[in-house]
Amino acid sequence: ILRRRIREKTENLNISMNELSKSQVQLRESEKRFRRIFNQSPSALMILNPSGRVLMFNEAVVDIFGVNNPDELINLDIINSPVSTEWFKSRLKEYRNINLEVKFNFEIIRQTGYYSTNKTGIMILELIIMPVEIHTGSPEPGYICQFSDNTQERLLLEEVKYNQRKLEMIFEAIKDGLWEWNILTGKVRYNRKFFSFLGYKPELYPDDIATLIGFVHESDRESVKAELSEKVLNGRSFSIEYRMVMGNGAVIHVRSRGETIEWDDNLKPLRVIGIQTEINPRRDITNRINYFKNDNLNTEIKPLNDYGDSSKCYTVLMVDDNYLIYLHVSEILKRYKVETLYASSGIEAIEIIEKRNDISLIILDHHMPGLDGVSALKEIRKINKNIPVVIQTGECQDSLNDYFERDGFDGVLGKPVDENLLIETVFTLVNGDK
Q1: 186 Cβ neighbours under 8 A, 6+ residues apart
Q2: Of 10, 134, 199, 311, which is least surrounded by CB within 10 A?
């Protein structure tokens, strides 16, 4: 029995020894494969022991750091290198992951004799360091490090940023209205001149092609859209003449010239740039000068309490066939907590007045298709004799005030609208002081 047991134990031991031998062979093969992959990796890789000293590294490390004598790297103290920061040291000692981009100064390496290098200047170094379990007899983990030289990428990025800044300066310095249309995203970038030229506030309008089309005179809108689409989709340059409506209601003639400047791999247009120039030699220069003299874009806002009871809510119905003028007036009134309604014609205004009894004041455009301002007032008075009604006109002059008052208007506003006069007129009338 004893012999049998000894024989069985011996056989089991032999089996275990064979399995151990196989495992050792597999381990050596795995280690060889690991070293082969490690050494042949295009990435600069380094393994540190728990104390932060170099155990092994690949050839890419020698190249990226310009190491003259690779033997110098073995057992090199990475944690306390002359270029290490306190933050870096603390992170390593806490065995935490590190992923950052730093400036690696080769001059400091040379001056301190940290190792012998053939490189000079500064390298933009991206480093990733992770704690890993290493069989060194220590219960503490070691580290695996990956290094990348991002210097060229950063230089290219800085050059791109510099060129972008130059383009931005050129974009804004152009004296004509300039727009750039990204067809893929649908976004359109306008320079400041595009809006100031027309007398609108850029922050009131979305950055899309609808803004450009919205400023086009309604009689020209469809033809402009059709021609622009046809030329752009075929990647052709374009030169289109049409009318646009300014913020003060004046109509000007412009020419838009442009072309596609970027295509995708299938030669479909991606980006289009256009320049807009006024071509009307008989434009109303006076209106434009007065618009900016009025400083409508930067008028100082008076305190709401200056206009009576700030707790009351007022609603103003704006009647104008030009929606952009309504947007401008509406933006001003919103700052004074005044709600606005919009009607594009006298007939539409009458329908609104018949349905609502909370309208505090009406602003009527003088010239509108269908019912003009004077005719619309007569119809409004049949419905409501007491509601204040103000007329707005580009022909507003002192000599016309009496004329409009005889027609029954409670006030007169000009185009472009004077913000102070608008607010004073609205609050005076809604508070019952005619």
Answers
A1: 208, 209
A2: 311
